[in-house]
Amino acid sequence: MDKRIYMRTALNRTGIYDTENKNINAELSSYEAGLDMFLKDMERVLKNCFIETADEENLIKRMKLLRSYVSETDAEILRAQLFEKAKIRTSSLNEMQSRLNSAGIDGTVSEEKLKANISVSNYNSVEPETAQAEMKKYLPVFIEVTVTEI
User: Fold this and answer.
1) How open is the CA angle 113-96-94, to the nearest 5 degrees?
2) Beta bridge partners of 120
3) E strand or H helix at 140, and its extent?
4) Which helix (H) or strand (E) segment is 99 a member of?
5) Which of 22, 85, 136, 147 shows the greatest Cβ crowding within 10 Å of its Cβ?
């Protein structure tokens, strides 16, 4: 239903307003314009509530909350990295591998007792020190980490 018709109907039900009055119609028009802006903003907010539907700008803002840099601007890669950061973690080799990817590092992880050997092939437009610091935040603290660039 048209917003102005809806508001006019609601006012008519009160019996107080003469909705045929041009001043009332002008006021309803301004309310309609304000309501349109509000609904448009609410639609944007609802869209950006979830990682699955958020736009690129919002994904970048979310990533900046989790780290001091954003290595990607592609929405699908950012979305995948945010999903990785949100997962409940274990200390398995596969989990450590996915943590590398979420830190913006292309590489492989191999483990030996309480040591993780990480072979880095690419830092995805991130300074190596920054990427390694990010990676270490998400790796188990009891595992000794050795990084080798290949």
Assistant:
1) 90
2) 107, 149
3) none
4) helix 93-102
5) 85
What number of CA atoms fall less than 13 Å from residue 21's CA on the CB side?
10
Strand-pair category, 115-122 with 144-149: parallel
C-alpha to C-alpha distance for 119 and 31, rounded to whole angstroms: 61
Distances (CA, A) of 16 to 12, 24, 31, 121: 7, 12, 18, 74
> In which element (H, E) is residue 2 found?
none
Of 139, 102, 105, nearest to 119 by C-alpha is: 105
Residue 143 structure tokens = 């595992």
**Are the C-beta atoms of residues 100 and 134 closer than 8 Å to each other?**
no
pLDDT in tens, the chain (150 residues): 588 888 888 888 988 888 888 998 889 889 999 999 999 999 999 998 888 889 988 988 888 887 756 766 788 888 888 877 776 555 677 777 777 777 778 888 887 777 777 888 888 777 888 887 877 777 777 777 778 887
Query: What are the DSSP E strand ranges found in 35-150?
Result: 106-112, 115-122, 144-149
Residues 150 and 134: their CA atoms lie apart, in Å, by 19
